[in-house]
Amino acid sequence: MALPRTSINAIKIKLDNAVSAKDPRAIAAAVNLPAFPKIVGAARNSGVAGSQHREHLKVDGVDWSNVLNPLLDAHLAIQSNDLAQIYEAQSSLHSSLNHVLGSSKGNWLIPALHVVCRNTHRAAALADEHVNRSTGNRNDHKRLQNAVTLLQASYSKTLNDRVELRPNEPFSEEGSKKAGVLYIVNQLFSMYFRLNTLRLCKNLQKPVESRGIHESGTMGEMVTYRYYVGRLNMFEDQYDMAEQNFDYALRHCHHSAVANKKRILNYLVPVKLLRGRLPTSKLLEKYSLHEFVPLSNGMRTGNLMEFSEGLMKNQDLFIRRGTYLLLEKCKMICYRNLFKRVYKIVGKEQIKLDHIAKSFKWLGMPIDLDEVECILANLIYKQYIRGYLSHAKRILVLSKKEPFPTSKVIKQ
Prior knowledge:
The protein is mainly α. It is built from 19 helices and 5 strands. Strands 3-5-4 form a 3-stranded antiparallel beta sheet.
């Protein structure tokens, strides 16, 4: 089974003309694929195995047949709605283009490589998801793991090019292949996060930043890079660095890319909350970040019940994002603001622990005095509260000068 001759000729001529002209954008368009089929029902096997096409294409002495034939196979698989075969054909196409790229001069094939990397990533993810739905196994990532090796090969071929990278230089036969590095790194970051192999991200981050490549891409590439590095910082408890990277990504994200801004805010808001910076209601409403409303309100007013219920209600969502434990840490600020309200009501520096325990009971979260002491000891240790505890008298003695220092909560 093969594509109709008219379709084969159209794809072949399009690729031939683009490569003959060495037109980077035209080659990228020629190797791109139509929209992938949606995942519906059980995994479908079209019965097609291996390459179905045996076309020949040679341009300027370079054999492009190994790129053309899997490209035709991928088009056929898309028509057959066979996601597994789409990936097989796409991976063969990717491997062949890596080979052609390695033997070519300049960076005129970089846009095509970017298109192929994106399609390989997407085809692998869809094929895995399709198989997992059919088998009920959620942990089969065989195709995505295979795709990682293909993108790693593309990364190596672009990073190790000896031609010096000149930012904003047009694609040509003299340009540096390093112009393609940052886009591929971002694709690999996405795959590593999906596979939960974050330790591999450092293998990309160090060489990219040591050579300044992370500041030499398009704005979209640099924004995406900062987004992923910010997430890495967050998982490593480097919240100041995470905030800087997320802030950069949000400020430089295209104004019409609302979905991407929301994606950034899903991580920036928790980091800001932990650092004592509460989002405005207008911001949360604008980007439909309703899951953060009870957390923000609870922290602002010291309403521990509202905070805890909001955290529990959206627990699954926060766990999937990897922000649950970070948000759990924000509870200390909520405690601090609750005790500050008790201090203002009592109106003096010496506060009986029984008064604090009553505030918990009023919120519907009764705790004993030992638990109150434990929470206060932690707050004093973190310097959220200035004072000391008298265990014998069950009293909190606050400092007369700024007993609730703002500078320790709101990090600069």
